[in-house]
Structures are given as C-alpha cells and as structure tokens.
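Retro notes
What went well: the complex prediction finally ran end to end.
Inputs used:
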Amino acid sequence: NAGVTQTPKFQVLKTGQSMTLQCAQDMNHNSMYWYRQDPGMGLRLIYYSASEGTTDKGEVPNGYNVSRLNKREFSLRLESAAPSQTSVYFCATVKGSGARTEAFFGQGTRLTVV
Amino acid sequence: AQSVTQLDSHVSVSEGTPVLLRCNYSSSYSPSLFWYVQHPNKGLQLLLKYTSAATLVKGINGFEAEFKKSETSFHLTKPSAHMSDAAEYFCVVSENDYKLSFGAGTTVTVRA
C-alpha cells in the first residue's frame, strides 16, 4: 500500500522553465493538498482540493496552478519557475473529520530553480 | 483564524534526558491539534493528536503532549531522549477538516 506518492523526488529547473509535480494517493481520501516547506517557516498551503472537481487557493498560491485530475491524482504546475520557488514540496491527503482527522504526506519533491 | 507558534526553533538535549518542545496556538473554535515529526530527507509522520477527548495524549515512540486550554498550549514531552529522536518537529492546528496550519518547526539535536 503506497499511500501518497510524489514524482519526481528531485528536480533542477532554470528560471522561466515550466514543470508539473505529480501526486497520487491510493487511500481513497476526498481531500488533497499541496504544501511548500521553507527553512524556519514550517509548511505553507499552496492549493487544496476538498473533493474531486474542486480546487481552492491556500496561503501562497501565486505562481502555481493545480489540477485535480480524478480522485487519486492532484498535480501542481509551475508555469514559469522563479528562484523564489526553490523549496521542498509536499503533497498530502486528509482522512476523516473532527476527531478522526489525520493527514498523510508524500516523501516530498526537492525543487531547485537556478 | 487559526495559528501556531513554536517557541523554540532549536532544542539540544543529551541522550537519556527529558525533551520539551513548546507550542502555543490561537483558534476561534475548539481545534484539533497535532504533532508531526520529520526525519532528515523524509516525509512527515504523525506523532500524536488531540481531538477534545483526554487532555493528556500519548503518541508513538514514548512522546506525549498535554492540551491546556487556559494557556492555549500543546507542549510535547518525552522523559528520555534517544539518538533516533533527532529530527524536526511540527505543531499543527486545525479548526476544520480542510486547513492545517503549521508552526515553523523545532529542530531537535541529541548529544551522545
């Protein structure tokens, strides 16, 4: 049971290039999330999808787009990469509600923009 | 609005001594609170969570946390640190099912 799978694990881009980070979950959860992790700032929410067919902006959406392709897959696209987007990106799903809430994270994608 | 403040960016302890990681939160509602651990170059793993049941919550690997509403705190403790506890720890608050707010993280170093 893979859980949450992110690809690629590492990527180096030149400024202005585009790329898509892929995320897939086999946990049958409705909600999926993209976070970025920067030193001293914890994880900040970029976009989330509460269910298939819906997406919403988080704290730091500028420069990113997302697609909830189906219940399993939630991709994050950088149209024109900038050095400020150098970060570690995590995809997550959340199961349950209220007392049963728990988030599950992928292993992360380490992105460097030069 | 919800937010989390982790009061220490770095904690250094000797192996076998207690560990204390401090977390304060603000929330308009009765929140759910979590501690996650991240080992180097790894994803995040749930240590424990508080969801309005018992105020003292026990987690994995000997960690526990106490929810104190009057102090809006959710501090994480472990009686005896092990070398494998060296990692980054995140306190997380959630007011609803969709948004998790993370603290900035506390890096724990364990000295032999």
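What we learned: Chain B touches chain A at residues 4, 6, 9, 32, 34, 36, 41-44, 46, 49, 51-53, 90, 92, 94, 97-100, 102-105 (CB under 8 Å).
What to try next: split runs per interface for comparison.
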